[in-house]
Design a protein that fits this description.
The structure holds two protein chains of two kinds. By secondary structure, chain A is α/β, with parallel strands linked by helices. Chain A contains ten helices and twelve strands. In chain A, strands 6-7-8-3-9-10-12-11 form an eight-stranded mixed sheet, sandwiched between helices. Chain A has a four-stranded antiparallel sheet with strand order 2-1-4-5, covered by helices on one side. In chain A, helix 3 packs across helix 4, helix 3 packs parallel to helix 5 and helix 4 crosses helix 5. The longest helix of chain A is centred in the middle third of the chain and has 18 residues. The chains are: A alpha/beta, B alpha/beta. The interface between A and B is large, with 50 and 50 residues.
Chain lengths: 315, 324
Amino acid sequence: MSVLAIEDAHRQFASGGGIVTALDGVSLALDRGEIVGLVGESGCGKSTLARIAAGLDRPDDGKATFGSRPMAPAGRQIDADTRRRVQLVFQDPLASFNPRRTVGRSIALPLRLNRMLSGGQERSVVAELMDQVGLDPALMDRKPHQLSGGQLQRAAIARALGLNPDVLICDEPVASLDVSVRAQILNLLLALCRDRNIGILFVSHDLGVVRRIADRVVVMYLGRVVEQGSNEAVWSAPRHPYTRALAASVPTGAASWRLDQGRVRLAGEPPSPFDVPTGCRFHPRCPIAIDRCRQDDPVLRPISQDIDAACHLAE
Amino acid sequence: MLKVRDLAIRFAGRSASEAGTLAVDGIDLDLDRAQVLALIGESGSGKSATMLALAGLLPKSAKTTGSVLLDDRSILHLDEREKSTVRGRRIGMIFQDPGGSLNPVLTVGDQIDEVVRTHRRLDRRAARAETVSLLSRVGIGDPAARARAYPHQLSGGLKQRVAIAAALAAQPTVILADEPTTALDATVQAQILDLLVNLVQVEHVALLLVTHDLAVAAAVADRIAVMYAGKIVERRGPEQLVTDPGHPYSRALGQAALPFVAAGDGRHAALPELPGRMAEAGGTACAFAPRCPLAIDRCRAQVPPVVPFGDGEAACFRAGETAQ
């Protein structure tokens, strides 16, 4: 059974006099020891879904459960145990640390708040955590601005690990890092997943990263999951035309990419979530849309053993 | 047409006694019309300082030496007035954040009109016609109506197209683009890259693309210069740089850039890492030696000279060799 499950979540926000539908019936499951890549473009709802998975927000309708417990009963704070077991790592590590507190104190803070530290242990526990993420414990007394981006992201992971979580929600954790540092952080996350059986929800716009590390992929478009399945199946033979376009939009490193006439080129940008198209929400940009797509909203359905897609034409 | 020789940039230290930081350590660049040169590197490589120097946007406290010639005219040490004519007229710029370079209280048409009229002595009506034509050339549908929109009414991709139109408005000879697609979504990035490739041909401008992304550079550039610790360590055509890099740093960058392929070596397998971090510019040895799997004593004692390699050159004693 999945450790984290979101079922048929709906979430709307009032914004500037209109209603934005961020999630329109989205389900997501995460097991321990697996990495699920959540991809999609701006406005697709992936960050809202990640916030719900982390217990920072709750769906208007639908449910989120952690283990066997509902994640956030309506009108109540998320319970302390669930809060401890789901931890977050953000894109900008500098913004996620208090600039006036030493890195060591920041790493210790969640432990102290959860009364998991007894007097006098703090420095040795923090040193141990820093060591586990490949960070020199001598940096414990530094302030955040004295560490590099990569070091600080390791510190953020150390802080998350202190509470011994079952799940890490990582929102673009390497997007602000240099490419040579990126692999170091990704390897750390891979090792945590492998060695500690932690489940990772990895939210990213970087398809190259997702393709290299995820076990499963969930592709979102305008508040819906349009395709999901095993990482290999989704990228090697995408069934939804949007996923095909996404895959084709990644420069391959080959100079011939620019001349490739066969490459799927999408016109326009994702429509505003204020004004979702009728029928299939992808149809205005879809290169293969037929009449039916303008009227019937396709549901997510199994296409093969390891892929679901929401497209009338998928087979 | 754009010729950079032995350009060095030093940022001032906090006090007069401090030596300051060397950001760029003697680089050469050549760029012709209808060509794309990509300058790639990580933070601290000096690529952004180079771009700022070419744009005339370095702070006064930064010391530059060497020469930058645009059509045989030096543009490195101009006074403020000359600088603004060169910068506005001859050099167009595109930045990572398209919203940041547009004025939020003017319509995009008014902003482009202003550039057109400043540099080209057209009346109001002719300027607007030119603006609409520019918007159309950067792939904006219904350009006359879009010209009346304010920046906040446009998506990120449209704003970047507007910024590109504004950069072209003075009919520059060179366009400097600093990470122009980094903030954009994948499908929009692909659109903007297609547009840039096309514009360089159609408008016959030179494009200097500064990026951290090797795959983006390879998709657009005719030549790629790889910077590390203030120096250009390799200069190649894109195909060869990707498939047969000469410098071990270029190789590491190619592996770390995570080409869009499956891991291939099993579930949760580790990715190739580049340990350590970039050295400061200006050393007396190869700056990459401390991180290099191929480093030998000589690399730690001397700065490697630039040697011909493949369709370009590399600054490495062991160019083209691979670690076992």
